[in-house]
Inverse folding.
């Protein structure tokens, strides 16, 4: 509020408001640029990958050329996933994300995602176990596809940072207060210095973790999905022992979805 005092306080208030307006405009421009750039880059990137994949179908090709096209396809895939993640967060920042909220059974979500993640874990020589604690249904209010993505990000991280042989455990719990999904791994863990920053965009942890591929956006997206669902995502980790990511969803007792 600007007081009509015609003195230094009024001028200071006006100056502060002008500064805040410029900052807000700058932030909005950054959000729009990120969204527009991510969207516009997808088409040429898709074209590059398609051309490389078509070239690989030719039988008449020397080994060096084939290896070069294979690297183009691989890098185009990585860049495409990065752009998709950036677009998701840009849309979230701009408030244009449009999840469809409905009654979602987390038992089904956990079963579906762990079935897919189990194949990846098995290929790496890891043991993936799932525990439902005799729960047949665990309803939350949310978007089914986004909740699948949230759990997949946590499991993908667990597989990525767990060496063979290792263990990954997914546990689903439900009470009258809420639904909890926990993903525990026996991986390399996170240092106490890095732990407060793991949900920060593009944050790369110490050398032991940064040697693994990744954009630093996965956990930021997971945190946004959790927040969008009024859920709480937290992490506990001991370096060299493993990490546990736990997301707690509220279950409103008066919600008609659960009646």
């Amino acid at each position: 509020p600007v007081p009509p005092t015609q003195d230094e306080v009024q001028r200071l208030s006006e100056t502060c408001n002008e500064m805040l307006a410029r900052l807000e405009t700058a932030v909005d421009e950054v959000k729009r640029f990120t969204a527009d750039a991510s969207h516009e880059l997808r088409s040429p990137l898709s074209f590059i990958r398609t051309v490389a994949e078509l070239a690989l179908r030719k039988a008449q090709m020397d080994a060096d050329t084939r290896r070069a096209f294979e690297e183009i396809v691989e890098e185009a895939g990585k860049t495409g996933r990065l752009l998709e993640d950036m677009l998701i967060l840009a849309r979230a920042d701009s408030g244009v994300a449009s999840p469809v909220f409905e009654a979602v059974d987390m038992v089904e979500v956990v079963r579906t995602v762990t079935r897919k993640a189990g194949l990846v874990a098995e290929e790496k020589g890891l043991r993936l176990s799932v525990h439902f604690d005799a729960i047949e249904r665990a309803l939350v209010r949310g978007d089914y596809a986004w909740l699948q993505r949230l759990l997949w990000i946590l499991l993908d991280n667990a597989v990525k940072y767990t060496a063979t042989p290792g263990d990954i455990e997914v546990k689903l719990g439900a009470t009258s207060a809420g639904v909890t999904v926990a993903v525990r791994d026996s991986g390399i863990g996170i240092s106490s210095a890095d732990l407060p920053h793991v949900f920060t965009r593009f944050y790369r942890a110490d050398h032991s973790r940064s040697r693994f591929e990744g954009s630093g956006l996965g956990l930021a997206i997971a945190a946004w999905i959790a927040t969008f669902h009024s859920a709480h995502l937290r992490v506990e980790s001991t370096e060299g022992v493993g990490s546990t990511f736990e997301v707690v969803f509220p279950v409103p007792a008066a919600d008609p979805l659960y009646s």
User: Anything to note?
Assistant: Confidence is low (pLDDT under 50) at residues 255-259. The first strand starts at residue 102 and ends at 105. The chain has six helices and seven strands. The first helix runs from residue 8 to 56.
